[in-house]
């Protein structure tokens, strides 16, 4: 086991490179299943544990996968006959594995995937994915912890999503690429990662229109082929460094950040007194001496992203006054706050809203990450805490951040990642379970 140790007090200064987006590359990797001929070549692929997990799911399904980490390039060949069943041992590792269902159903009329289950941030059902498959003509069976979808033929139809679910939009979009006729999906997710997936599908020969708007229209085609694609920048990694700069009164150029993708965050940063300068090289963020409080509500894109919520609460706690944060996307995404309490944070949760009482004089403590963004938020809090903060449960951090500590070090933070000796590991684990 490893932990990150941060000694607070340093300003972040310099420039930071941002990886390809985890949430874009995972469905794009799954889309390779649709390519009956030609190789898929993906570049700007981030080195993350979730990417390894998706690669292993695809290998299990009989896709040839070659990940050249030195070049951030993955080559995929799905020309062989594939298996249509993804077992529990893979799906349980990563919920996003569910997005192999749509492409398998499109290509083979059959997909069987272990029910993904909830996670620390919420219950996370997949009913909208399944409703979409059913509307396209699939029969859904749930048995022995598996979801099985079967269809003789998928037929284009009109689908309205009750909620603009990212995963459901991606899964239904991929299932519809080879359906007979036209599929219109309304109230879809509009995240940049949806647009990136639609771009790849179109390069593969699909006819997907409207990605990035509320309605996506897909004309079914008979076959898709491989293509090459450069994965879009990770707006959440970029946003995390923007918050880090603001929090530490720093001055950081987030290289090649696409400001359009981070508009809701940038607008809140500006409201808090942060200077944000967009230029050709990226987005430069300069933290003020004193942060002003602000109220935030998470929403589907183009609203404030739930994946920036834990990091944002740290910034709000540091602000001079009371802020609120309302989490509308996931019902249980405040777990990191209890860890921040160990660092002297003062807040009150009422339902889906938390009042955050700043300014906080964070004190270093031993804290455990409860999920991916919680991990980043705790490290950020450590950057401005008195003394040393030790963050454990780094398996969550590694799902979504490549060498987070090294990037922070390069920006001037006093941070290191160390192995925990076995004895200490037992004590830390028992504390994390308290
Ligand atoms: C790999 C990936 O891209 N993950 C992102 C994706 O997750 P994911 O695709 O799982 O998130 P969704 O947009 O589907 O979920 C949003 C909300 O809809 C609910 N819901 C979803 C599907 C469904 O069938 N029924 C249902 O009720 C969920 O419980 C949740 O409350 O979008 C989330 C919301 O921006 C982000 O936090 C995740 O980082
Ligand atoms: C919640 C997240 O991811 P996932 O949907 O893969 O759990 C995230 O990226 O913050």
UniProtKB/TrEMBL annotation:
Cited InterPro entries: Enolpyruvate_Tfrase_dom, Enolpyruvate_Tfrase_sf, MurA_subfamily, RNA3'P_cycl/enolpyr_Trfase_a/b, UDP_GlcNAc_COvinyl_MurA
Catalytic activity: phosphoenolpyruvate + UDP-N-acetyl-alpha-D-glucosamine = UDP-N-acetyl-3-O-(1-carboxyvinyl)-alpha-D-glucosamine + phosphate
Residues annotated as catalytic: 119
UniProt superkingdom: Bacteria
CDD domains recorded: UdpNAET (cd01555)
The keyword Transferase belongs to this UniProt entry's keyword annotation: yes
One annotated Gene Ontology cellular component of this protein: cytoplasm
Subcellular location: Cytoplasm
MF terms in GO: UDP-N-acetylglucosamine 1-carboxyvinyltransferase activity
SUPFAM superfamilies attached to this UniProt entry: EPT/RTPC-like
Entry keyword set: Cell cycle, Cell division, Cell shape, Cell wall biogenesis/degradation, Cytoplasm, Peptidoglycan synthesis, Pyruvate, Transferase
Domain named Enolpyruvate transferase: residues: 7-408
GO biological process, one term: cell wall organization
Pfam families found in the cross-reference section: EPSP_synthase (PF00275)
UniProt keyword Glycoprotein present: no
Residues that, per the record, bind UDP-N-acetyl-alpha-D-glucosamine: 95, 124-128, 307, 329
Similarity annotation: Belongs to the EPSP synthase family. MurA subfamily.
Protein name: UDP-N-acetylglucosamine 1-carboxyvinyltransferase
Species this protein is from: Secundilactobacillus similis DSM 23365 = JCM 2765
Gene name as annotated: murA
């Amino acid at each position: 086991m490893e932990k990150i140790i941060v000694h607070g007090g340093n300003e972040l200064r310099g420039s930071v490179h941002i990886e390809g987006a985890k949430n874009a590359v995972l469905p794009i990797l799954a889309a390779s299943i649709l390519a009956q001929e030609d190789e898929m070549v993906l570049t700007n692929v981030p080195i993350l544990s979730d990417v390894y997990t998706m690669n292993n799911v695809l290998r299990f399904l009989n896709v040839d996968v070659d990940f050249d980490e030195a070049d951030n390039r993955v080559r995929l060949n799905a020309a062989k006959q594939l298996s249509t069943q993804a077992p529990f041992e893979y799906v349980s590792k990563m919920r996003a594995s569910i997005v192999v269902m749509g492409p398998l159903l499109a290509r083979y009329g059959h997909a069987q995937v272990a029910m993904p289950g909830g996670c620390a941030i919420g219950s996370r059902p997949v009913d909208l994915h399944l409703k979409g498959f059913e509307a396209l003509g699939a029969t859904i069976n749930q048995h022995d912890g598996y979801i099985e979808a079967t269809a003789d033929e998928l037929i284009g139809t009109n689908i309205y999503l009750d909620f603009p679910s990212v995963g459901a939009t991606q899964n239904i979009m991929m299932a519809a690429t080879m359906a007979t006729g036209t599929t219109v999906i309304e109230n879809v997710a509009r995240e940049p990662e949806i647009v990136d997936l639609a771009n790849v599908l179109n390069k593969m020969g699909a006819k997907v229109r409207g990605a990035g708007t509320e309605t996506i229209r897909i004309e079914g085609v008979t076959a898709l082929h491989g293509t090459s694609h450069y994965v879009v920048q990770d707006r959440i990694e970029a946003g995390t460094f923007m918050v880090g700069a603001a929090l530490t009164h720093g001055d950081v150029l987030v290289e090649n950040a696409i400001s359009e993708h981070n508009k809701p965050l940038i607008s809140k940063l500006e409201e808090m007194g942060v200077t944000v300068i967009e230029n050709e090289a990226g987005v430069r963020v300069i933290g003020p001496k004193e942060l002003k409080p602000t109220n935030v509500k998470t929403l589907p894109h183009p609203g404030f992203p739930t994946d920036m919520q834990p990091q944002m609460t740290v910034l709000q706690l540091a602000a001079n006054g009371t802020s609120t944060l309302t989490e509308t996307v996931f019902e249980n995404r405040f777990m990191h706050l209890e860890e921040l309490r160990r660092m002297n944070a003062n807040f009150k949760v009422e339902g889906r809203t938390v009042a955050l009482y700043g300014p906080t004089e964070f004190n270093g403590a031993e804290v455990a990450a409860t999920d991916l963004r919680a991990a980043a938020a705790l490290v950020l809090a450590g950057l401005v805490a008195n003394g040393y903060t030790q963050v454990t449960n780094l398996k969550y951090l590694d799902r979504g951040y490549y060498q987070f500590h090294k990037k922070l070090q390069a920006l001037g933070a006093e941070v290191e990642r160390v192995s925990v000796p076995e004895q200490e590991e037992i004590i830390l684990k028992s504390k994390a379970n308290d």
